[in-house]
Amino acid sequence: MKSSLRSKYKTLREALTYEDIETQSLEIANNLLKLPIWEYEFYHLFLTISEKKEIHTDPILHILQGKDKNIVLSKSDFKTRRMQNFLLTDTTLIKKNKWDIPEPVDGIEVPASKIDVVFVPLLAFDKSGHRVGYGKGFYDIFLANCRKDVIKIGLSLFEAEDEIPGILSSDVALDYCVSPNHIYEFKK
User: Fold this and answer.
1) Which pLDDT tens digit goes with each residue over 100-133?
2) 25 has binding-site annotation
3) Of 91, 124, 143, 148, which is the most exposed, with the fewest CB atoms less than 10 Å away?
4) Can you give the pTM of this predicted structure?
5) 54 is in an annotated binding site
C-alpha cells in the first residue's frame, strides 16, 4: 500500500547524506535539460524542505532563471488542501510555514490555467507514472485544476517501483519522472 511505500522512502531518504542529495539533485537538474520542455513560459516549482531531505531544487531554479522563465511558487492552505500560486519576483519574500515548507508570503497570483510545466515532489513513483506523496493530496487537487495539457514532471532521488498498489481515480499521473540516473517518460 501507499503507506508502506511512504515509510520505505522516508527511511531511504534519511540514510542519504546532504552531500548525496546535493550531487543527485545536480544530476537530476542536468537530466531535466534533456527534456523537450524549455519552450514554455510558466514553470511551477516546489522549494526544498531540507528537514525532509527532499531533492534540492535550487539548481532547477537557476536553470529557469537563466532561461528567463516565469517561475511560480505555491503557498499551501492546510484547511482546504489547496495551493495558491505566486510569481517569483525579486521582491518575493519566502518564509517557512509551521511544517517547514518554504513558501511565498504573498505576491502576484498566477492562475493554475496559465501554468505550462509543473515539477512535482514525491516520495515514490512507479513505471506507469503514478506517484506517492506525503498523503495530503495537495498536488492531485492542484494538478486537477491545471490545463489538461500541463506537463507534469516528478523529481525523484530514487528509481521507479514496478507498481504502486491502491491508485485512486483522483490520483493524477505524471508525464515524466527524472531521477539521477534515468528519465522516465510515461505514454498516455
Assistant:
1) 889 999 999 999 999 999 999 999 999 999 999 8
2) no
3) 148
4) 0.94
5) yes
